[in-house]
Amino acid sequence: MFFNLNSNKMFFMFIIFFSTMISISSNSWFGCWIGLEINLLSFIPLISNTNNILSSEASLKYFLVQSIASINFLFCIILNMILMKNFEMNTFISMMINSSLLMKMGSTPFHFWFPNIVSGLSWFNNFILMTWQKISPIILLSYYFNKNFLIIIIILNAMIGAIGGLNQTSLRKIMAFSSINNLGWMISSMMISENLWMMYFFLYSFMISIMCFLFYLTNMSFINQLYFFNINYLIKLSLLINFLSLGGLPPFIGFFPKWIIINFLMMNNFFFMTFILIMTSLIMLFFYIRILYSSFMFNYLKLKWMKIFIKNKMMYFINFFSFISIFGLILSTFFFL
């Protein structure tokens, strides 16, 4: 099962939750750093698997990257304590702290580790990495950020997330670049207000959870595996709605927070950033629709190397999530009337 976790895994899941609470509720930078370190050390046992070489490699890469970001973060905290009075140094230190937190969450230009690690993880670990693991860095980023630096980062996130996903055939890597693109929207919502960020993050997590769950149940890893589901069009319909919602196409529910962000950016004269965010969303929709069009139009009956087992009990989950997707579509149409 997707949530088939033994007692050890459940313990580490609890520690991940607990460490995030430590980070975001701490009243000192050092306490935030401790929470991030506990989070790192509790996530590695979840992703490492001795039976899977890719998972072992991904856990080692994740440990190295996060350790470098943590060292940089701690170094900047100490520098900030020593050189508090110098404004120019404080601006530099704020950019350094922002950079270490951006590396933690897999944002550009520190995103190179993210697609590689995602491709070696299970769908459940992917879901945690794309959603929960971003909470602590983004909230810490909202405490102390350099506005001009973050505007550049938002534009880079939107562009690299859209362009990087064009040439991918792996569904995990497509979801990784989609996460990088959505991170640009997430950081811009964080700059506007905490409530808007929470709404965007909740809706994004909801859509990602449905997609990861469906990919897990149907054992899909690559685009060409989407061509085989002539047995159940509810799977394709659910993926259609959630892909387009993730891309931000109206009247799907994923467009609603993006609409609010665009309104705010236009009111505050961020015209170039708004233009980049909208254009990159169109690129994202292009390769989502390309995948969906192929999966609806092409049907291969059977290939010898292709084995997909869907148990009867799993179909109830798929139908349930399809219903949620359709209900979300109906609900979102009332938002825009």
UniProtKB/TrEMBL annotation:
GO terms for biological process: mitochondrial electron transport, NADH to ubiquinone. Residues 26-283 form the NADH:quinone oxidoreductase/Mrp antiporter transmembrane domain. The keyword Nucleotidyltransferase does not apply. It comes from the Eukaryota. Core subunit of the mitochondrial membrane respiratory chain NADH dehydrogenase (Complex I) which catalyzes electron transfer from NADH through the respiratory chain, using ubiquinone as an electron acceptor. Essential for the catalytic activity and assembly of complex I. The chain crosses the membrane at residues 12-36, 62-83, 110-129, 149-167, 198-218, 239-264, 270-293, 314-336. Belongs to the complex I subunit 2 family. It is an enzyme of class 7 (translocase). It comes from Spoladea recurvalis. One of its GO terms (molecular function) is NADH dehydrogenase (ubiquinone) activity. The keyword Nucleotidyltransferase does not apply. This is NADH-ubiquinone oxidoreductase chain 2. Its EC number is 7.1.1.2. It is a multi-pass membrane protein. Pfam families: Proton_antipo_M (PF00361). It catalyses: a ubiquinone + NADH + 5 H(+)(in) = a ubiquinol + NAD(+) + 4 H(+)(out).
